[in-house]
Amino acid sequence: MGLSFGTKTPPVALSGEVVVSGLGKSYGASRVLSDVNLVMNEGEVVSIIGPSGAGKSTFLRCLNYLETPTEGTIAIGGAQVVAGGKLPDKASLDHLRRVTGMVFQSFNLFPHLTVMENITLPQRKVLGASKEQAQAVTEMLLKRVGLPEKAKAYPARLSGGQQQRIAIARALALSPKVMLFDEPTSALDPEIGLEVLAVMRDLADEGMTMLVVTHEMHFARDVSNRIMVMGNGGVLEIGPSEQVMSEPQNARTRQFLKAVLDR
Ligand SMILES: Nc1ncnc2c1ncn2[C@@H]1O[C@H](COP(=O)(O)OP(=O)(O)OP(=O)(O)O)[C@@H](O)[C@H]1O
């Protein structure tokens, strides 16, 4: 299902919900990612941390081709793509985007649509769901993110935390296999961010596979199974969250953690 038609042969042994191998990204002569590898099992939560400019967002955005990786292979939830600096064929790209739900720092809701319309629209366009089906799924998801009463509201009438919870519901509406979060609380006051983190923690408890770029060290340590530390466009280290936080192996990881934890 969703096999790629790239220029190279995909890796033979693929297991895990997410298998990324040898991922690289350059912008012209500027190399921002080199040889990034990651294997995630179904239900696993991995937090990506690291200093500004390390390549965390670029890595996440390469996984669903919001950025086009220059090299490497990506296999997510049965979708498989071999990167070659250009877009893969439409079927592979559509499949990859179907199995990945993305949540951005800036919510990205349509301002002119109600909450209900924001969440039903992708279901109708992408899944071909009927209006009734899409509304029923939306009502269920609004309950799941704790906002059942907001169906008729417009985004501008909601707090940032509420908008982000709606954005999570919208991503979930397409039944992704993996959720990608790009600093989902960075634009929010810390207190408001907590309500978003609580929804994410619930999702993790329900067994969703999640990859989360975050500066929230408590979330990284307490909710994720593993932490991947990035620096200079590569992986500095990856390991069980508790171990990375308390006994980082890499000198640059130690320096980074000291800086953020002393803040
Ligand atoms: N469109 C682009 N063109 C050229 N360089 C880019 C582009 N987008 C990102 N970069 C560069 O890629 C590098 C990685 O950026 P990225 O945003 O992925 O880092 P990050 O680890 O997510 O940082 P932050 O924590 O500040 O968001 C940076 O040096 C950045 O300047």
TrEMBL record:
Annotated ranges, domain ABC transporter: 18-257
Molecular function GO terms recorded: ATP binding
Family recorded in the similarity comment: Belongs to the ABC transporter superfamily.
CDD domains per the UniProt record, alphabetical: ABC_HisP_GlnQ (cd03262)
Highest classification ranks of the organism: Bacteria, Bacillati, Actinomycetota, Actinomycetes, Micrococcales
Domain of life assignment: Bacteria
SMART domains in the record: AAA
UniProt-annotated location(s): Cell membrane
Keywords: Amino-acid transport, ATP-binding, Cell membrane, Membrane, Nucleotide-binding, Transport
This protein's name: Amino acid ABC transporter ATP-binding protein
Membrane topology: Peripheral membrane protein
Keyword Transmembrane helix: no
